[in-house]
Description:
The protein folds into 2 domains: 2-126 and 264-289, 3-Layer(aba) Sandwich (Aminopeptidase); 129-260, Gcn5-related N-acetyltransferase (GNAT) (Aminopeptidase, 3-Layer(aba) Sandwich), CATH 3.40.630.30. The chain is 28% helix and 33% strand. It has 9 helices and 13 strands. Strand 10 (199-208) and strand 11 (211-219) form a beta hairpin. Residues 186-256 form the Eis-like acetyltransferase domain.
Amino acid sequence: xxxxxxxxxxxxxKDLLIKSAFNMNENEVDVWMKYQYxxxxxxxxxxxxxxTSCLQVTKRTMMFLDRQIRVSVIGMAATLPDYRQRKQFxxxxxxxxxxxxxNDLLTITYTNMPKLFxxxxxxxxxxxxxxWIGAPLCRSGNPFHIKQKAENLYPLxxxxxxxxxxxxxxxxxxxxxxxxxxxxxxxSIVTITNEDKQPKGFAIYSTKDKQAxxxxxxxxxxQAIQDLLxxxxxxxxxxxxxxxxxxxxxxxxxxxxxxxxxxxxxRLNNYKLFDKFSNTNVRNAxxxxxxxxxxxxxxxx
Length: 301
């Protein structure tokens, strides 16, 4: 049986994640439950009188053709080990798609398993790229341009997002919630400034075993990137950075070849409604994204 929410079953969801989400420890599950969990949009598969699988969908605002639309974002998903290989995730995804078809123009996800989503009419739109850069190549910037105390970051984020289309635009409350989530996971959030101490970007990253992992990077010029890398390389031997397909890091690091990470998969839920919205005649997500004149950036959801 599938239930379209998990209201009243928070303890079961937490227990399921602890037993199933092997990439998260118990503290990380606690933080996710506090800042990311939304029982109203958690689809649950029930079997043997318990929740055996779950799939959370987040509702977001996306700028598309410079107008606002509502989209569904496929997020946390987990299945108890003893109940895997039973297509429970597929059934939950069907339920989420069915609901989104009547409410949201698009459903999006970042995934390492595109085949699962292609079977549900999702299409591959773009890739996430990951650069790995050794410390000796990270010292051309000025580490003194980095401030550890991050304040009032939303205006920087909002300004940065004006360069993109087909991209989620968080409200200030949604943005602050995500910042709190990352802070409570123990990640570093720093502001990048220029010579006049004016902010020109910010970054969110984690460190472990002399390796830094930059998950979110907002910047307005290449010098900001170099300053950040110079700062991080003081205490780390290598830095990885996740970027969108359209960002040209090859100009800074021409001899580095990025690893392709997760794929952005998008489903056009209702082409008739999309035609009314866009005054076009498209029939799938790829055709919809071909209408855009700006690049996309969806790495902060």
